[in-house]
Amino acid sequence: MNLSISDRPALILIDIQKGFDNIEYWGGQRNNPDAELRASELLHLWRNKGLPLYHIKHCSSIATSLLHATHPGNEFKDLVRPGPGEPIVKKNVNSAFIGTDLKAQLDAAKIKKLVIVGLTTDHCVSTTTRMAGNLGYESYLVADATATFNKKGFDGKNYPAEVIHETALASLHSEFATVVTTDSIMRIIEAGE
Predict the structure, then answer these.
(1) 94: which of 15, 33, 119, 165 lies 20 to 30 Å off by Cα?
(2) What is the pLDDT of residues 164-183, one digit of tens each?
């Protein structure tokens, strides 16, 4: 892993919002129940080290969505609630780079490396990670700080959340990002090299 604290990597926390607590709404099954806890561990470390971080919030354009701005589910989960002055980037599509100023903020801060966590692995996390890779950022996707829900295929077949999660990670690894664990990232940042 070619990452060090001197790179000043940005932590990108994607859509860790209360609306995702309604597992039935999103598919009835979820993997990685500790994903938010792992993301919060990274968030606290980034804060303690004074590293850049960005909270991404999905503001659905669908009025009935649990992530619509008028719904309580739009709020960030308590474990990762933004602190004073921490940037919040609002989006209404799968990529945190589309229709937002995220790239402009990263570029203005001369950030070249990203550590990505959040929900959900196969939607907004994957889309943002793919676009980050295409835009030239060196990205590290944290497998145990991301999660998703089960999905039905076009033929009605049900795919378990863990299968969706693992295949999404496999599709991203080595092409758009390096897939890592929370512990491996924390060791590097805590070492302070």
Answers:
(1) 33
(2) 999 999 999 999 999 999 99
